[in-house]
């Protein structure tokens, strides 16, 4: 899955680059800044052991919704990929699945927990993000077009730093593993959700590496194909 998201994201680079030509100093500086932001996010995620950056509290989930809204507006940016980098993709999908299962079972009490604890903050972030980011982006593109497009290019290029295709969940060890700033104890170990487990990287086999490259290529071609279906420059850009 990570490989596919990498391809989908990198496929957005030609889209934004076409809008940004010709190159300028502001474009380069913006790209460096955007790349730096994604590098910092990747470092924060690595320091958190691969778990959600900033936790999964209401503020972090609201930020995830805002990021998702921004990705819907920004050309070539994958919202799912950014949520993966932030470590919020799996918790949000888990909440959606739990909500659906509770509704199917007719258990409104069980449905309220994921609805109010996860989905509501994300929805609020989405609404705020759509309104705020669209207006902000239009103003930035009007007043400083090149640096803004450069920043987007940097975000896309730097996004690959946040995800390594060959990683897997690592079962926490009591007294050793730190999750959300707390050392896992023998008492809390059974209560630790799998989506909160840290991740570890591994050396892939030749076949797995080839499959990952194929998924990256498939994602890249998919994004380019979608872009070619709408060659017309997005409104406001």
From TrEMBL:
Taxonomic superkingdom: Bacteria
Coiled coil: none
Positions of transmembrane segments: 28-47, 59-84, 118-137, 149-166, 209-227
Keywords (A to Z) from UniProt: Membrane, Transmembrane, Transmembrane helix
Name this protein carries in UniProt: DUF368 domain-containing protein
Organism the protein comes from: Eiseniibacteriota bacterium
């Amino acid at each position: 899955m990570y490989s596919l998201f990498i391809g989908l994201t990198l496929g957005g680079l030609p889209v934004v680059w076409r809008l940004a030509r010709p190159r300028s100093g502001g474009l380069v500086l913006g790209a460096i800044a955007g790349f730096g932001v994604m590098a910092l996010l990747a470092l924060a995620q690595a320091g958190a052991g691969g778990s959600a950056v900033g936790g999964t509290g209401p503020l972090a989930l609201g930020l995830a919704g805002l990021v998702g809204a921004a990705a819907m507006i920004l050309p070539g940016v994958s919202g799912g990929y950014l949520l993966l980098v932030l470590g919020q993709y799996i918790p949000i999908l888990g909440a959606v699945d739990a909500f659906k299962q509770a509704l199917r079972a007719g258990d409104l009490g069980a449905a309220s927990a994921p609805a109010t604890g996860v989905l509501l903050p994300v929805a609020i972030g989405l609404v705020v993000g759509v309104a705020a980011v669209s207006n902000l982006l239009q103003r930035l593109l009007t007043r400083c077009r090149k640096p803004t497009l450069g920043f987007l290019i940097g975000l896309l290029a730097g996004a690959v730093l946040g995800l390594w295709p060959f990683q897997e969940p690592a079962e926490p060890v009591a007294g050793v593993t730190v999750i959300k700033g707390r050392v896992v104890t023998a008492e809390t170990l059974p209560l630790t959700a799998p989506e909160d487990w840290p991740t570890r990287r591994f050396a892939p086999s030749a076949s797995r590496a080839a499959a990952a490259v194929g998924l990256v290529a498939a994602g890249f071609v998919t994004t380019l194909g979608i872009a070619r279906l709408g060659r017309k420059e997005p409104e406001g850009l």
